[in-house]
Amino acid sequence: MRELRSVCFVTRLIEEQEILDKDHKAHAASQQRGKRLMQAMSVGSKNADWELVNKLMKVGCERADTWIAVNFDRLGEQSTTDIHKKYL
User: Fold this and answer.
1) Cα–Cα distance between 24 and 18 in angstroms, integer?
2) What local confidence, expressed as pLDDT, does residue 42 receive?
3) Taking the chain, what is the end-to-end CA distance rounded to the nearest angstrom?
4) For residues 6 and 74, what is the distance between their CA atoms, to the nearest angstrom?
5) From first to last of its 88 residues, what are the pLDDT tens digits of the chain?
6) What is the predicted pLDDT for the residue at 49?
7) Rounded to the nearest 5 degrees, what angle is found at the Cα of 29, between the Cα atoms of 37 and 18?
8) CB-side neighbour CA atoms (13 Å) of 71
9) Are 37 and 88 in contact (CB under 8 A)?
10) Is 11 exposed, middle or buried (0-12, 13-18, 19+ CB in 10 A)?
11) Are 31 and 79 in contact (CB under 8 A)?
12) Would you say the pTM of this structure is higher than 0.70?
């Protein structure tokens, strides 16, 4: 959370032109989430066996492929998530 706050703070200062130093750049934030999947899993499933690891990896790859297809053109240029709204 501290790092996210720092990123938001510096990005806001850059956007408001309070920081003009070219060594600092605004950060474009992105994220991949799996909250619903993790909540649906039982406590017992938190023990990482090979089957679970493979399942999570497969789901992660599928979601990443979908996310990249939707957001690729924005990477490094525009945030795909609102850090301030979601975490601060």
Assistant:
1) 11
2) 67
3) 8
4) 22
5) 788 788 778 778 877 888 877 777 666 666 666 667 777 776 666 667 888 888 888 988 988 898 889 889 888 787 777 777 776 6
6) 80
7) 150
8) 18
9) no
10) buried
11) no
12) no
Measured CA distances, 81 to 3, 13, 25, 31, 56 (Å): 16, 18, 17, 7, 22
* DSSP assignment of 18-87: S---TT-----------HHHHHHS-GGGGS--HHHHHHHHHHHHHHHHHHHHHHGGGTTTS-SS-HHHHH
Residue 80, both tokens: 């795909």
Q: What residue type is 61 in one-letter code?
A: C
